[in-house]
Amino acid sequence: MLGVKAEAITAEEMAKVDRKAAEFGIPSILLMENAGGVVARIITEKFGTKLKVVVFVGTGNNGGDGLVAIRHLMSKRAKVNVFLIGDPGDIRTEEAHLNWNVIQKMRQNVKIHVVKSIPDLKGVARYLKRADVIIDAMLGTGLKGPLREPFASAARLVNVSKVPVVSVDAPTGLDPSTGEVHGVAVKATCTVTFHRMKMGFLKAKGYVGEVIVADIGIPPEVEAAAIGKRRRLRWRVGEAPKEIPKLVSACLLGVNCRYNGQNNLNEKVMQLAAKEVLIPVCPEQLGGLGTPREPMGIIGGGGSEVLDGKARVINESGRNVTENLARGAEEVLKIARSLGVKGAILKARSPSCGCGKIHDGTSPSRLVKGDGVTAALLKRNGIQVVTEDDLDRII
Ligand code: SF4
Question: Does residue 284's CB lie within 6 angstroms of at least one atom of ligand 1?
């Protein structure tokens, strides 16, 4: 089954599930066959038959999945160049070894290249130029830390090729549990991941591309025995799980941080706080302004123009507080990054938090088009910003 709805698990949990499947008597070679078969089927569905395919495989089971995919693609009349990253003598598992031996007997149609070090990658670009699709099966979900050579150089070549890339289980170089990349990782057009969505993919959209979760025949009983019934996240691909925190303007949660020492307590925000993790922030306070403070407004544009140095924030007595609002916005962004935040609910119409429309700095009773300084900075950094006025529409 291929699905868009999935429960996300970590790589460590997936490793436990794999081990438990073996204890249940499900042979690893069968799971490898299912994995490679589904990758080949997806490639055929997406890109057609008679493809020129370049496959990068490693010496572990991820490479084994790639080798199985080659065999299935050959029956769709593919022309394949396979690059083994590593020494054939280092192929680690019996299952991968078996499939490597099969590929050796298909040399009439499969060209095999062994890459033990960076110089062995010379000439790869020539094959990539002619390819219809690249399969990345170098390293799967077991990666920790930065890529070693020649994996890193191979990943760089893949990324500059402009050819669609299908990553097997996880893009090589990406930590599937955290979404972190240390240095370089393959940027896939599509990632076919097995059994369950991996937790880190949510934070790594630029690397995983379209994610397809493929069933490879692991029954729920195996998963329950391996990782128990503890709660896992449910989410649709492309949406943040509810457990990933959102930022919220502190005044909306009843914090007395408004310029006049009061708050903007909002009932809908409070209802949301009962269901989701909300992190309160007040950009003006984080920018070094005290409470109470004088009201302020943007002159010459919105938050975006402030960030570009084309507009200023002036308070009621004419003091320039642009630097404070810019600093506060940076602090909020820092918090967002450290918590992996993808969304924020900010106070409408504020020169710091507002989104879409803000009070005019020259005449506060008027609204002008634009974002607050913090809203503009968060948006520039890929964080979705809404206001409390939007909550009816989105929850
Ligand atoms: Fe509230 Fe935002 Fe103003 Fe801070 S900047 S007081 S959070 S509206």
Answer: yes
